[in-house]
Amino acid sequence: MSVLTIARDGAIATVTVDNPPVNALSQALRQGLWDAVATLDADPEIRAVVLICAGRTFIAGADVTEFGKPPQEPHLPDLVDRIEDAQKPWIAAIHGSALGGGFEVAMGCRFRVALDSASVGLPEVTLGIVPGASGTVRTPRLAGVEAAVDLVTSGKPVRAAKALSLGLIDAVFADDLHTNALAFAREALTRDLPPPVSLRPITAPNAAFWEDRRKTVTKAAKGAEAPLRALDCLRKAAEAPFAEAMAYERQTFLDLRGSDQAAALRHVFFAERAAPRPAHLRDVGPLPLRRAGVIGGGTMGAGIAAALRDAGIPVTLIERDDEALARGTATLRAIFDGAVKRGKLTDAQADGRMAGVAATTDYAALSDADLVIEAVFEDIAVKRAVLDQLAAVCRPDAVLATNTSYLDPRLIAEGLPNPGRFIGLHFFSPANVMRLLEIVPVPETAPQTLASGFALARMLNKIPVQSGICEGFIGNRILKRYRAGAEALLRQGVPIADIDAAMRGYGFAMGPFEAQDLGGLDIAFLQREGARAAGRDVPETLGDILVRAGRKGQKTGGGWYDYAPGDRRPQPSTAVSDLLAGRITGAVQMDHDAIARHLVAEMAAEGRAILDEGIAARASDIDLVEIHGYGFPRWRGGPMFATGRQG
Ligand code: T1G
Ligand code: NAD
């Protein structure tokens, strides 16, 4: 099947790319475009060319599936130069996303026009590489160096209006992209053409600019290499001739293409596209999810309600009494007000979010809900009572979900009429921010209910991972193993501060002890005490000793570390050394790399057990849980990838 066609309309030709699913620049497409330049240059009737794409989007970039293979001609930078050097000006007409090589092809064109719904970007650093076809050299010639640094080192796309204001594109249309692009081309021919992008001037910032940007990019990169290498390419583009900068960019791209970080990030790229499409749901349609209910307006309930509202889903928020309802509503308002402060929402949008929330203590308000998620106390009796009330008032086909962290969803659903509509939906705090959603069916869960869980994840822009039933599902089970591993090193004499520093050095935002102090040691302590009260043999942990001594973390002024009033910086604690004195029996010395490798191996070992028990469907799902639920550094690929335990 041809990946592009050429049509003629008077003096304007249209090259239409059609290479589903996202018009990626496969070798065949590069060759097709290469040949199209020659064909149209040789056509005396043609004076300009519109490049447009069929399907959902403009060219989404190089074909990521080709990355593991040797580069094939025509190489993309040569193709971009060929389009730029064409005798007739090319106009890129963009819808959907013009990303990576797709936007580089567009920058080889003399003009770029787009639908206002379109976006453009250079996400290469998110794949562990840098743009490899002039992205770091042409972008600053269109938008200036400062904007180019933001675009390239963040990898974040910008919408058409922003791209227009930056000079990345030349016109924005509300609709009728092709018609408007043809008209734009005809009008452009009546004027002097601007110079090709590679010949446009570039203003080199001073050394202080680069020093400042290196600091900010290093901080944002958190150990990822590509953003800093992209910054080097941009400086070269600002200070060296075009050809020299191009050669530098190409060499950097080829260096990084084969790097461990690029391999890890490609692994995550494909893992994120595998998880939401389980094979067993391929032919199962979800239920419509138009109206939702959330029971409990506490930490999680308010976050879940916010996530639903961010997706435009009306929410009925239920609490046990008016006072708790007022607290829950206030928490929800505070979430949206925070988004306004950060510039993520306007005041009107925040008001709109709240307008879509019906807050009440009357369960009857849920009579028309398609989905209800309970996020009440982690207590089986409370949850069962809530489920009984829901069964009495909700439609029999309404999906009923629990957000429990540690309770067995089968026990929560015991006795529930129509149990096929019940499912576990384990959100992570803050529920409107963390992208991970563990989807936990019980044996009775109907396929359509399961498909609805995955559909909800898509609507909320979350990464769904299906989990079997075990204590802590996938994420909290591995967290428990990770913490136990850290405590075991502590018992052997490895200092707390060394263990945290090692995991920060590995790429985590914070180490296991700092994280417990932030979240509170009492959450896991109460879970262990609950298990003990239920007759389970749960050995004492060092954390138990601290909680019993009133050291619950930052919220009590001390946990694994001491904290000065109003100061969240952890300080080594002599009180903790005294409390644990009898338990630290070794004097083991471990360097940070050895500590990190050991603890990641512990996570992967638990992951292997989770796979062997069928709790997780694939190793890459476990990697996604750790990356999107617990801050495992994305550029390491997750514990399974990082330790080579795939398959
Ligand atoms: N190459 C190959 N396949 C791709 C692809 C790509 N670039 N992008 C997406 N796919 C597949 C994806 O695997 C899935 O396949 C299907 O398309 C739908 O994807 C030289 C070197 C474009 C915003 O990083 O951001 O150019 O699972 O579910 O939600 O400088 O895809 O159906 O079989 O994500 O509508 C730079 C990555 C490459 C863009 C669409 N480009 N893609 O989102 O669909 S590096 C990117 C996306 C580069 C140059 C360098 C998104 C999308 P399947 P999807 P979507
Ligand atoms: P929370 O104590 O902050 O909130 C629970 C809310 O439920 C309270 O506001 C309470 O008033 C309300 N509630 C209790 N009984 C009710 C009833 N009968 N009807 C209506 N409302 C009722 O607790 P949380 O941290 O939000 O946790 C809630 C659930 O989410 C628990 O099952 C917990 O395991 C789970 N969870 C918590 C986290 C987390 O990090 N906190 C993460 C994932 C899942």
TrEMBL record:
Keyword Oxidoreductase among UniProt keywords: yes
Pfam families attached to this UniProt entry: 3HCDH, 3HCDH_N, ECH_1
Keyword Flavoprotein attributed: no
Annotated catalysed reactions: a (3S)-3-hydroxyacyl-CoA + NAD(+) = a 3-oxoacyl-CoA + NADH + H(+)
Subcellular location: Peroxisome
Domain 3-hydroxyacyl-CoA dehydrogenase C-terminal as annotated: residue spans: 472-563
Keywords: Fatty acid metabolism, Isomerase, Lipid degradation, Lipid metabolism, Lyase, Multifunctional enzyme, NAD, Oxidoreductase, Peroxisome
Annotated GO MF terms: (3S)-3-hydroxyacyl-CoA dehydrogenase (NAD+) activity; enoyl-CoA hydratase activity; isomerase activity; NAD+ binding
Domain 3-hydroxyacyl-CoA dehydrogenase NAD binding: 292-466
Domain of life: Bacteria
Assembly, per entry: Monomer.
Name of the protein: Fatty acid oxidation complex subunit alpha
Species whose genome carries this gene: Paracoccus haematequi
